[in-house]
Amino acid sequence: MLTGGASGYAAIHSRVRVMYSTLLSPQKLADLANAPDLSGLVGLLKDTPYGPYLEGLEDKDLTSKQVMHQLQKRLADVYITLIHTAPAHTRSLLTELFRHFEIDNLKAILRAIVINSSWEQVREILFPLGSLAKLPAEKMLEAGTIEAAVAQLINTPYYDTLSHAVKRYTEERSLFPLEVALDLDYWRTLWINANRLPGQDRTQALRIVGPLVDMNNLMWAMRYRVYHHLSEEEIINYTLPFGYRVRDEDIRAIAAGADMARIVMRVYPGLMNVDNLLQDPERGLPKLELQLQRRLKQQLNAVFTGYPFHIGLPLAFVILNELELQDLTVLIEAKASGKSPAEFMHYLLMSTNVEEIAAS
Amino acid sequence: MFFPEAMTELELIIPEKDLLPVTKVLAGRGVFHQVDASYLSSDEASKSLGTWKEQAAAYSALERQILFTMQALAVDEGPPLSIDEETMVELGTVRPLVDQIERDVKNSNDQLIENQNKLEKLRSHILQLEPIAEVDLDISLLRNQQYIYSTLGTMPAVNLERLETSLARIPYVLMTLRKEREDAVVWLTGARFNADILDRAARSAYLNPLELSDTHEGTPAEIIKSLRQEIENTQKEIENQKSAIVQLHDTYEKQLQTLLWQVRASKLLADAMARFGKLNYTYLIVGWVPTSKLEALTQQLKQISGNIVIEATPSLQRGSMTHNVPVALENTGMFGAFQTLVTTYARPRYEEIDPTVLMTITFPLLFGAMFGDVGHGLLLVLLGWLLSSKRVEALKGMSALGSIVLACGAVAMIFGFLYGSLFGSESFFHDLFGFGALWIEPLHEINQILAVSIGAGVVILSLGFLLNIYNAWRAREWGRLLFDHHGVAGLLLYWSLLGIGASALLPAFPVPMLVFVILAVVAALMVMFSEVFKHLLEGHRPLVEDGIFTYLIQAGVELFETLISSLSNSVSYVRVGAFAVAHGGLSSVIFILAELMGGGEGIFSVIIYWLIVVVGNLFIVGFEGLIVGIQTMRLEYYEFFSKFFEGGGMSYEPLTPLATARSEKS
Question: Residue A221: its chain B contacts at CB < 8 A?
Fold first, then answer.
């Protein structure tokens, strides 16, 4: 069994370093953004580490869904490779982090049941979890109702969570309580897993997982207030009582109607333009979230300097991969719908201005 | 034995009326490897083939439906039908029948599930009420209080703290009555005018209130009593429903089993027919049949259809166009076991030599030479016998490996006699048999055993070259035969290099070195310009593609690689001798260790001595045996097979008849 420290992390560290060098460069992303159409974009992607995953795609019936599915396969492979290479005591955290794709799949299946989709339709939107897939997805869909589908989850970690929430679905016919319950349980478990690690691993894991938890919790609280108009007590119950820099008082203050900009600026000093963005929160929140994600990306890249033999590197790397996939999703959808670069560039997390990157 | 089974291409043209009986014969005999001929259909006819595809899909859906129903009734698949019963059933006839059975089963099952859920709910109610069983208060009074909001229920224990936080601004009482694993039974109460807040907080904390019907009145103890009565009644109902399901099982068991196999047979036939070519009023069927079974099949086809046109083309008449001939390998028994090792590497092409027999001879020989020991070999023989006898349930999956282990162990025993080794000890061997090594003692004659190993390697590699030449001759690939680096030119080069080495090392060697040098240069030029010569033979132009300069660089590198690989492949066989030596060495280490640790006097020392000897020998058999196995595999795959065996043949997959399933099941 592998241990921590330099000996435990030697293999995974070298692997992550090599893989880190394969992340798309700003120049490459700029080239992708300027591709004439989806087919051109896929052609360019074939010269990147995503290439082998796109080999089988035929130009004539290319859809954004197919392309995304193939790119997701690479992300799953990255995760699975690192989970298998990681020291034994850290695998549960990496696996737990990866589980949010399973939760997305679970939500997709529940939505599909509500709108009566066929398995063929559902299958192509599920994230390819590879060997880590545990959900009885097809059986759930065949079950026909949300209640029966939840019953299929009896031997999975989701059953207890959903069995409490499913009664609310029965009364309200809304998937919202189920989805919130799943999210809360996921972030609680992830937080517990990170806190269970010993010494340096714990510190570094919290350095990565903490900002993620903060960003999600803060955005949830603001969204519940701005978009869903939930009451104070509901916002509190639908958010997490812990965080890295976000304190429970911050969440409670947002729930109670306090000035959101002031709280955001306290948590993220130096974040630009927050006041302006939150003057019209309905439009400003998505932009704020993008800013937070860009900031997170910088923090993740910073992990790659300094002492490298800890869980922080693989954690940062997989999340960087996810963010890269998020950018690619923007590009793929934009190209599939014929948008010009001016219409979508501001949704990208990575700056495509090469000179600017070089200067920074 | 040395080649895949001879195949004959069969083309049938049959009138539409004979479609079903002919398909039944083709599927039933289990010898016909079908080739998709649907692309030959006329546009109009393609539509009717599409109907077969739809039918196959419909049968498939029906099969799933039947299996689902059988699963609900715990009915097994039962024995397959007899050949006579294998016919195509009408979807229109079978589907209503299946639907009817499914409805009956579903009704009973749904009622059962409903009652099981009810039972669970009632038990959960009791669990919620038990903590307040002593409270002498009518629960129904809490339902419609004018000034007090009150709710009793279960919630995730992890949400308790958050619920309290969310209610921090108002007065409330939250009592945890019971906390089990992840659930908590709680009672939340507060002022009625805060009911909205309390309700929202409770709901968003996933507090599920106890849902007692209005019929449940009185104190908690009284309600618990009535709930227990209700549980008893529900359990009785469940028992009755289970009996009803058992009755349904008995009623429908045979019918479902028959339906299942009929639908499976129909699906198989529809699948096959969807891949026929359809002309206006006739069907075209194309496929392959082992030549030995052709006569019987055609006779049967002629009996059922007078108007059938049969055209049989033996594969030999196709010249070198054999790439799409399916390959049926006929190795049984011990050969069958080694066939799995061959097909793991690749399936032979139709015109290629099937190397299974050679593998069956050379694999145990190489293994035995590396692992030569009477005792260790005997242990492997016993292990092999145990695996192939399928006596141990947990090892049944490895039965195919048993014959290989057994053969390797037997040859290792033979080499054990030749090396004079018993459980790694020469003295044991001598004491037991009264004589020493019959041939060589690897540990004491290291140079000799290494030289013999290289010699054996040269023989095996030369055999590989000759087999490649033979394969090329069979495939009529004259260019490959003469100029390939594993063809005549390659063999000449290899032998010339050996000759140069022999004349340099052995002064008394009868042939002068110059002869070999000239031959080597000629052969090297043949290999280097093999592509040009091949193009000349085949009439292919231009003779050199991508320019002469590029070609010369490429050819030079390839020649260099050929020379290096000739040398390295031969030297690679040194490992056979090296492992024989290592085997002896490792065994001696065991005895030295045993002597060191248990060499003293007294029973304890004797126990230690023998413990180390036994464990050490088991370690050698397990660990070294595995390594030697891997090394043997490497010599076979990379040194030997790479000389002559390309593989890539198409697997022979006859229409799987239900008869096959029948024999497999029985």
Answer: none
How does B82-116 read in b/e, with b if 16+ C-beta sit within 10 Å? ebeebebbebeebbeebeebbebbeebbebbeebe
- Residue A94 forms part of a structural domain: no
- Chain A environment of B156 (Cβ under 8 Å): 160-161, 164
Q: What is the pLDDT of residues A143-188, one digit of tens each?
A: 889 999 998 998 898 998 998 899 899 889 999 999 999 999 999 9
Tell me: do A185 and A120 sit in the same domain: yes
Residue to test with chain B: of A233, A238, A247, A251, most B Cβ within 10 A: A233
What residues make up the domain containing B190? 122-228
Chain B CB contacts of A168 below 8 Å: 203, 206
Rounded CA separation A276/A264 (Å): 12
**Inside any domain, residue B131:** yes
Based on the structure, what is the number of domains in chain B? Answer: 1
Q: Is A162 an 8 Å CB contact of chain B?
A: no
CATH code, A2 = 1.10.132.50
- B contacts of A232 (beta carbons < 8 Å): 166, 169
Statement to judge: residues A4 and A46 lie in one domain: yes
Tens digits of residue pLDDT in A97-107: 999 999 999 99
Residue B356 Cα distances to A356, B333, B345, B471, angstroms? 65, 12, 11, 15
Q: Does B208 sit within 8 Å of A167, measured CB to CB?
A: yes
Q: CA angle at residue B558 from B556 to B562, to 5 degrees?
A: 115
Count CA atoms closer than 13 A to B468's CA, side-chain side: 26
Which H or E run includes B173? strand B172-180
Q: Is residue A161 part of a domain?
A: yes
Asked whether residue A287 falls in the same domain as residue A203, the answer is: yes
Task: Classify residue A92: in a domain, yes or no.
Answer: no
B388 in a structural domain:
no
Q: Which domain holds residue A145?
A: 100-192
Q: How far is A93 from chain B (nearest CA, A)?
A: 20
Q: For residues A8 and A62, state if they share a domain.
A: yes
Q: Are A335 and A38 in contact (CB under 8 A)?
A: yes
Per residue in A189-239, pLDDT (tens digit) is: 999 999 999 988 999 999 999 999 999 999 999 999 999 999 999 999 999
Q: Are residues A160 and A108 in the same domain?
A: yes
**Overall number of domains in chain A:** 3
Range with the lowest mean pLDDT among B82-86, B104-108, B541-545?
A: B82-86
Write the DSSP assignment of A52-113 as a string of letters: HHHTT--STT--HHHHHHHHHHHHHHHHHHHHHHS-HHHHHHHHHHHHHHHHHHHHHHHHHH
Whether residue B153 lies inside any domain: the answer is yes
Distance between CA atoms of A219 and A215, rounded to whole angstroms? 6
Q: Are residues A289 and A344 in the same domain?
A: no
- Whether residue B387 is contained in a domain is answered as no
Could you say which of B169, B201, B208 has the minimum Cβ distance to residue A164? B208
Say whether residue B294 is in contact with chain A using an 8 A CB cutoff: no
Q: For position B152, which CATH number holds? A: 3.30.70.2750
Q: Which of A232, A234, A237 sits opposite B159 (nearest CB)?
A: A237
B161, B203, B204 member nearest A241 (Cβ):
B161
Q: Verify that A241 and A321 share a domain, yes or no.
A: no
Show the 3-state SS of B537-549.
HHCCCCCCCCCHH
B71 to chain A: which residues are within 8 Å by CB? none
Chain B within 8 Å of A107 (Cβ-Cβ)? no
Interface test with A, best of B71, B185, B206 (most A CBs within 10 A): B206
pLDDT tens, residue by residue, B341-373: 999 888 998 888 999 999 999 999 999 999 999
Given an 8 Å threshold on Cβ–Cβ distance, is B201 in contact with A167? no
A174 contacts chain B (CB < 8 A): no
Which of A172, A237, A248, A249 should be substituted to probe chain B, the one whose Cβ sees the most B Cβ atoms within 10 Å?
A237
Placement of tokens 């699963």 in the chain: B71
Do the Cβ atoms of A233 and B197 come within 8 Å? yes
A95 falls within a domain:
no
